Fold this sequence. Notes:
By secondary structure, the chain is of the alpha/beta class. It is built from 27 helices and nine strands. A five-stranded mixed β-sheet has the order 2-1-3-6-5, sandwiched between helices. Strands 4-7 form a two-stranded antiparallel sheet. A two-stranded antiparallel sheet has the order 8-9. α4 (88-101) packs across α5 (112-122), α23 (477-496) packs parallel to α26 (540-554) and α24 (501-524) packs parallel to α27. The longest helix has 29 residues, at 359-387.
Amino acid sequence: MSTAILTGQPVPGSSIEGDLRSLGFDVRLASDAADTGTLLAAVPADQRVAVVDARFVGHVHALRLGLTDPRFPVAAVPGAVSVQPAARRALTRAMAHETSAAGGVAIATENVADRIVTALDADGVDVHRPELGTLVAAVPADPQQRNEIRQAVSAVDDEAVRLRSAVKARDGFFTTHFISPYSRYIARWCARRGLTPNQVTTASLLTALIAAGCAATGTRAGYVAAGLLLLFSFVLDCVDGQIARYSLQYSTLGAWLDATFDRAKEYAYYAGLALGAARGGDDVWALALGAMILQTCRHVVDFSFNEANHDATANTSPTAALSDKLDSVGWTVWVRRMIVLPIGERWAMIAVLTALTTPRITLYALLIGCAFAATYTTAGRVLRSLTRKAQRTDRAAKALADLTDSGPLAELLTRFTRGVASLGPAYVAFVAGALVVLVAALTPYGSWWPVLGAVIYVLLSPVALARPLKGPLDWLVPPIYRAAEYGTVLVLAAKAEVNGALPAAFGLVAAVAYHHYDTVYRIRGNAGAPPHWLVRAIGGHEGRTLLVVVLAALLTAAQFKVALTALAVAVALLVLVESIRFWVSSGAPAVHDEGEPA
């Protein structure tokens, strides 16, 4: 139970006390400054506490936004301030300051909440002020102003605004026009019946896994059912976020589920298509693995670019200005959002093609579409980076270094890479990555030439750690390493030409990709990268690449398949156990993923 302290003299006919109770607050009344301080001290330290002016007039949803959002330690709207346990000391200092400034005079008859906010600002506390839009929140000074504000409240439909704001402001064409017009009402129905975003997220995952199972049957009826279920899974995927925004149910567990289940659903569906095709005598495991690799690398490009630039100073470029200008023309906005093939368009395409064609055609279309989208977005970001005058921060450099996932071999060799680092980390990483993949692709299975390529890759891998990654193209280093590692596994498994090698490689890449996504979302939540022992235990990108190449040179194709399977299981167990431990712990960040950029 949260506690709300109403300050000042109650206003006859005011609904504020009932509104606060409807939001889950235990309401207490304070008559003066000393009473307010006493009531604050009596609230348990592990509870949220709000201070609200008794004269407040406004929409209930304005109060909800200002007082109940779990993502912000301190939040405020005019006439009301809410503080979570982490910021209780700051509230105590602010209240003491106001009491001292008043010289013992009762200040509860004034706008205490706003004065507390002013004191918190002066103390350097980050106070979140939600965008209210057409919602009303005010403290009238006299009866006439109160009547005017009440009329303004009556003129705006509180529930309509709440329902509209449950939908993301920026989304893809398919989601905006074919899902959100009705999914918001499903979200409200679920919220009113006590269903949580996490429950809907889990239902979405189960639906997608059933869809993958239908695709794995290899029958036309199974493919049609798979396509329909995949679309329904996507509807639920939209609903869970809309419930979170509608009812402000953001949680640490929800952040983890929402961040990882989308990947699990999509990649499990790729595996289902491959299994279904195999039942019909068509081996498309290489295409399924290629699609997973391409999609993961696209995400890493997005994450790395955003981390490198989101807090950069003097962050301007002619390319960015042109992009902003294009976004000011209505039809170009939708075209630009569609051609990057975001999750809505991508899943719609996969669902329709699954129902109407074959897994091979579906995966070919997916690869072509994602390759075009990746080329378009990456080229634009490279141009922005080359023309941008930006000073990147130490935080951005550390985030990029964490995203590289460099292991103990790279750390050991950093002392020898100062000269190499001056050539540019992105260029060195590209040469090293291309070398190991091309040598593996151009030599027969069992050859030792790929081992030489992997050794050179390892020797050059410390370039990402030799100096801070603050160069204009240094954000390309993490996706290059992802492409090199995943691509090497794909090529060697395909070269083995033994049943089960590619599915085993699929499992290994999925396990490693989960670790990389986990790293991204920890950084997004300002929780830092996974623990150093975990990165060392699973070898880092350079250690895993070298190990896989050496195994391919030493073992027969059948033995290599077993080794890949064992490695996949070992990596999956390590990263999943640590990830689950972190995300269900009290120290995990209370964030909510607002949707993938691709």
